[in-house]
Structures are given as structure tokens and as C-alpha cells.
Amino acid sequence: MDDRVGAPAVGSDVVRLSLWPVVVRDGERSDLAVVSDLRRATGRFPHDARLAELVRVLTEGNPTFARLWASGAVAAHREDRKTVRHPKAGPVDVDCDVLTDGDSEFKIVILSAAPGSADEGRLRLAMAADADSGSTPTPAS
């Protein structure tokens, strides 16, 4: 969502899934998928105070989130197409697939590029550059 706010950390286990800047093809669709996935979580965990606080902070500080939350959509975020902007490899177009284990809240996010494509080469370059650096990349601002 483009109108981000500096939300306080709701818990020490809150982790950014993307360490590099990511551009989505259809921002509205992607935002709705994430918000509806969060709504699904609140239905599964209605008494989770940290989750309720996260929703409160986002609703009050982010008009896009507030509008999408008010829509009431409930779904699981399964797939998307994104461009990852890596500082050494450049822009890499990837498919983003989210795998879940049934009713579990564990998710595996897989970023892949079309086999044999220039994007696959850039994705491999990005992975090699990160492995060679031996350090954790600086999160996107």
C-alpha cells in the first residue's frame, strides 16, 4: 500500500517478508489479497490482542487499508506477480506463490522466475550476490 505509516512493532516476531523493494503489477488486487488474508487471521484468532492492535493501527493510519478492511473480504493470499528491485541484479520479475499447510498459519513464500528467462539469470545473480556478501541486506524503506 502506497500510503504507509510508521506503525509500531506489534511484536518482536513481526518480520518483513521482503528485504528489497518490491513493485506489484496490480497494487489494488495485491493489497486486497493481503488485507483479506489478515481478516481471515482475525477470524481464526478473534482474541489475539496483538492482531487486534495491528488492525487498529493500520485502520487509523492508512486510508487504503481502512477502505479495504471495511469491504469485509476474507480470503487467503495465494499468488501474485511482482518485480523485486535488487541493488546488484537490478529489477527481477518473479511469480510469488504462497503455500500453506491446511489450517496451519505457517506459510512458505516462493519467488520464482520463468526457467531460461533473463529474470531467472538476474534472480540467480541476486542470490549469489547476497550469499557472497555474507551479510543481511538492509530492509527497503
UniProtKB/TrEMBL annotation:
Domain of life: Bacteria
Positions of the MmyB-like transcription regulator ligand binding domain: 26-125
Protein name: MmyB-like transcription regulator ligand binding domain-containing protein
Listed PANTHER family: BLL4672 PROTEIN, BLL4672 PROTEIN-RELATED
Annotated organism of origin: Streptomyces vulcanius
